[in-house]
Design brief:
By secondary structure, the protein is an alpha/beta fold. It has 2 domains: 113 residues, Up-down Bundle (Transcription Elongation Factor S-II, Chain A); 268 residues, Uncharacterised protein PF01937, DUF89, domain 3 (Rossmann fold), CATH 3.40.50. 51% of the residues lie in helices and 8% in strands. The protein is built from 18 helices and 7 strands. It has a 7-stranded mixed β-sheet, sandwiched between helices. Helix 11 links the parallel strand 2 and strand 3. Helix 1 packs parallel to helix 5, helix 3 runs antiparallel to helix 5 and helix 12 crosses helix 13. The longest helix has 23 residues. The protein is globular and about 65 Å long. The structure holds 6-O-phosphono-beta-D-fructofuranose and manganese (II) ion. The site of 6-O-phosphono-beta-D-fructofuranose has 15 residues, from helix 16.
């Protein structure tokens, strides 16, 4: 089956071009600024060695920014991490696609590749500057965005706890409605990523539940009914056979979005629509706001320790879900490779086998959508299952607000109509999809 070409900064005027030219350098500049500002903390913690390390990291980032600005060839990674070899092989593969006197570079290679590569090079800069090896350059902005969403988080935790009290008496129709509601909250939570805003405050300030009805017309593909069928069918089958129903959530951003995902996961267990939730996070800092294990644990501890009854109730329930292993956290290194998801079976067969055990996989966010569809120039009307290019470990669903110019599975004329009425519909984060594929 032939697939269209990759989005790339080589298409001048495209969003990829704008990202590589302006947005990525801006993010790098913020990284440099953060490391610089943390100097005295490094000195305090590690003494002179910390200062030397800070200088080394800064030099690495300035060099990286210069390579990006001047469209230099992409370089092999020099650290020695479990994924280094895979990254270097990927570069060789990209090289093999070009003629001999051409080299993969920032403005010529696929956008997905170079953008992922930037975050991996940032990590390399930190890793090669011991003792800073575990410093997360984005931690500060992730934590701030959590605190700025306090009111919205309180509203959600309160809603969830009230729902939990009556959940046993809720009939099927109302359960379905509540599921729809919390799914939409998790969808719109994806507006709050910090890579699109280059680290600027992008948090949820108002109660997310109040605006759901108004936002419904912004959901361009809404396959919630299919999800409900999968989950409610699982629940009915289970009551006769006492088996498990496993939902996997491939997480995206920390901060408010993560809380909306945890709320949804809590609801799935409390309502018995699922019996086990597996979360998948990132093993290194990624796309500014993506969730790492430390963000995941930090968030739950923040809720637990909060000075608000329902927030702390949520936090302690979630802690105990982890202890009981009905919630499980995984961070496979595949999620921070540049590969499209149709390559999982080949590159990370262990992860593929794990995903096959799921009854439903929810992929949160824009980057996951780009990886699901290969970040290619698909026509708007190509079916989602075709764009997945044979990636079908289990029934799956993308829950994403549009922040990159790629969208499939639309009705005839729908994309064109949006383009003429709202030219920025694909990158503004104002539109979303809940897009399902059951093909196995
Ligand atoms: O956090 P999300 O939803 O994956 O969004 C990140 C997206 O935003 C962008 O930074 C916009 O360019 C993309 O690189 C990426 O697809
Ligand atoms: Mn993200």
């Amino acid at each position: 089956m032939s697939v269209p070409c990759s989005l790339s900064a080589r298409f001048k005027g495209s969003f990829a071009y704008f990202t590589v030219k302006d947005r990525l350098p801006q993010i790098l500049t913020k990284v440099i600024d953060t490391v610089h500002r943390t100097k005295s903390a490094f000195l305090e913690e590690y003494g002179e060695e910390g200062i030397e390390a800070e200088k080394k990291a800064l030099a690495a980032f300035s060099k990286l920014r210069n390579e990006l600005h001047t469209d230099k060839p992409l370089l092999l990674l020099m650290d020695n991490l479990p994924d280094t070899e895979l990254w270097n092989q990927y570069l060789e593969h990209q090289q093999s696609l070009l003629s001999e006197n051409d080299q993969p570079s920032w403005f010529k290679s696929p956008w997905l590749y170079v953008e992922c590569y930037m975050y991996r090079r940032i990590h390399e800069g930190i890793v090669l500057s011991p003792p800073l090896c575990s410093f997360d350059v984005f931690k500060e902005v992730k934590n701030e965005s959590f605190f700025q969403s306090q009111q919205a988080i309180i509203a959600l935790c309160t809603y969830l706890q009230e729902l939990a009290k009556k959940i046993k008496d809720v009939g099927e129709e109302q359960l379905k409605e509540e599921f729809f509601k919390l799914l939409q909250v998790s969808l719109w939570g994806n507006k709050c990523d910090l890579s699109i805003s280059a680290g600027q405050d992008n948090s949820q300030k108002s109660s997310p539940l109040a605006s759901l009805t108004d936002l419904q017309s912004c959901i361009l593909v809404n396959d919630t009914d299919h999800l409900w069928t999968v989950l409610s069918h699982g629940m009915k089958m289970r009551s006769s056979q006492a088996s498990v129903s496993r939902v996997d959530i491939v997480l995206d951003n920390a901060g408010f979005e993560l809380v909306t995902d945890l709320i949804l996961a809590d609801f799935l267990l409390a309502s018995k629509l699922a019996t086990e939730i597996h979360f998948h996070g990132k093993s290194i800092p990624w796309y500014v706001s993506d969730t790492t294990k430390s963000d995941f644990q930090w968030t739950i501890q923040q809720l637990r320790a909060a000075n608000h009854r329902w927030m702390s109730k949520c936090g302690s329930n979630w802690d105990s879900n982890l202890k009981k292993e009905v919630w499980l956290y995984h961070d496979h290194l595949f999620w921070t490779l540049p590969h499209e998801f149709c390559k999982v079976a080949q590159v990370a067969p262990d992860l593929y086998t794990e995903l096959q055990k799921s009854d439903l996989i929810l992929f949160k966010g824009d980057l996951n959508y780009r990886k699901l569809t290969g970040d290619r120039k698909w026509d708007f009307t190509v079916p989602f299952s075709q764009a997945l290019n044979r990636f079908h470990p289990a029934p799956l669903c993308s829950i994403r607000t549009l922040k990159a110019d790629i969208q499939v599975g639309l009705k005839c004329g729908q994309g064109e109509q949006l383009t003429s009425s709202e030219p920025t519909w694909m990158i503004s984060g104002q539109y979303g999809v809940i897009q399902f594929s059951a093909l196995i």
